[in-house]
Amino acid sequence: KGTGVAGFIAQEVETILPNEVQGDDWEATVVDEENPENTIPGSIGKGLSVIGIVAHMAKAIQELSAEVESLKEQLKA
Questions:
Q1: Which of 56, 45, 67 is CA-nearest to residue 17?
Q2: What does DSSP assign to residue 43?
Q3: Is 7 left (phi over 0), alpha (psi -120 to 50) or beta?
Q4: What confidence category does residue 67 fall into, taking pLDDT thresholds of 50, 70 and 90?
Q5: pLDDT digits 0-9 by tens, 36-65
Q6: Do the Cβ atoms of 1 and 44 come closer than 8 Å?
Q7: Is residue 20 over pLDDT 90?
Q8: Which of 41, 47, 48, 55 has its CA 20 to 30 A from that of 24?
Q9: Do residues 2 and 25 lie in contact, with contact meaning Cβ atoms separated by under 8 Å?
């Protein structure tokens, strides 16, 4: 699994906001004890750009607020 930020999982975010995810899926380092030069390095996993996610969330909140205001006006009419 990727690095989670406040309940977000990188692989899940990546399907919606691929530009806000960096890195590769986590892989363990494979150590060849007989031939250390053949050791295959792993990876640290995926990370998220919290600032990028917040920007998308702020835009979504603005759109939802506008929709709520529109619905309130419709109810008044």
A1: 56
A2: B
A3: left
A4: very high
A5: 888 887 878 888 888 999 999 999 999 999
A6: no
A7: yes
A8: 55
A9: yes
Identify the three-state secondary structure at position 39.
Answer: coil
- The answer to whether the Cα torsion of 55, 56, 61, 67 is positive or negative is positive
C-alpha to C-alpha distance for 73 and 70, rounded to whole angstroms: 5
Residue type, 7: G
Cα atoms found within 13 Å of the Cα of residue 7, Cβ hemisphere only: 0
Instruction: Tell me what the pLDDT averaged over the chain comes to.
Output: 86
Distance set, CA 19 to CA 40, 49, 50, 61, 62 (Å): 28, 9, 11, 20, 21
- 19: Cβ contacts below 8 Å, ≥ 6 apart: 49, 52
CB atoms within 10 A of CB 21: 22
Tokens of 1: 């699994």
